[in-house]
Amino acid sequence: xxxxxxxxxxxxxxxxxxxxxxxxxxxxxxxxxxxxxxxxxxxxxxxxxxxxxxxxxxxxxxxxxxxxxxxxxxxxxxxxxxxxxxxxxxxxxxxxxxxxxxxxxxxxxxxxxxxxxxxxxxxxxxxxxxxxxxxxxxxxxxxxxxxxxxxxxxxxxxxxxxxxxxxxxxxxxxxxxxxxxxxxxxxxxxxxxxxxxxxxxxxxxxxxxxxxxxxxxxxxxxxxxxxxxxxxxxxxxxxxxxxxxxxxxxxxxxxxxxxxxxxxxxxxxxxxxxxxxxxxxxxxxxxxxxxxxxxxxxxxxxxxxxxxxxxxxxxxxxxxxxxxxxxxxxxxxxxxxxxxxxxxxxxxxxxxxxxxxxxxxxxxxxxxxxxxxxxxxxxxxxxxxxxxxxxxxx
Length: 394
Description:
Largest sheet: 3 strands, antiparallel
CATH superfamily of the largest domain: Intergrase catalytic core
Number of strands: 6
Oligomer: single chain
Strand content: 5-15%
Structural class: alpha+beta
Mean pLDDT: 84
Helix content: 40-55%
Radius of gyration: 27 Å
Distance between the termini: 83 Å
CATH class of the largest domain: Mainly Alpha
Shape: elongated
Low-confidence stretches: 95-102
Strand order of the largest sheet: 1-2-3
Number of helices: 13
CATH architecture of the largest domain: Orthogonal Bundle
Number of domains: 3
């Protein structure tokens, strides 16, 4: 077994973890020094050993029963030992340190995670998704890089392959959105001299931004949602999604709304859009409030608590789970995400005769380009309505 062949002085050490299926996963454990920390319970300074694990995606049989399984064990162990030796030589040469700044020492996956850990904007969830998709891509297409890939191993061919992978697994604008965030991290790495040349330059993940890729809730389906209640339903999730259906606000904006955003005497809601804040003249949005919307908003717990959040929402993931449960209970079979509320709002008010410029203003669009896709959706609805009539035979 791996542990019997590991010397005390080895760094990293080849170790093993027994899995529930009877196999053993091989991994490397690096000793990266120590740090001193104050332990409040012991009321003294203690030494903490710093270690790092690298799973090799190599497996051996815990109790090989056939000559073939024993041969597979020997070959897998031999490969693991070679990898361990190579990593040790890299560590000794200063190419794979814990806090080293040399370009060749950096694992881009760790660099990406560090970027996320220090990221403060509200689209962090999408950037986390970009890292998860890139890791999944490497594990499937390039397993040699599954746990460690140097920044300069990112080349144009690899990025093109990643884009194709995203387009094969994502629907709607998902691939485009994820790749945009991935490029953001790569550009940051280039600007900080971690990558010599940006491999994403000139590569785009194209979408037809004049076509709505998400499902739309009709007025009848919205009525079905409003009439659906169930035990244990989160009232804030319910109120906030209905509010988005009737205002077109994005999730990243509704989650941050405070009572201070509401002008009760003039019945107005004003807020700065997270997505376009600082780089769009239409970043600030003002929405008129009717009785129903004011009822959804309610009032702060006390007049002095105007900075109180209006909708106390859990994570985006929890909100989506609750939304899907709610739509299923209502008998709606469409794939409804939170952003569908924004699309539904635009299509439904256009279908009821609203002016396209008015819709653009309510949605916070700086021009009509992004709003025009909703007019195409309305035209499609009208066409479907005509085609739903019995066939005319003369």
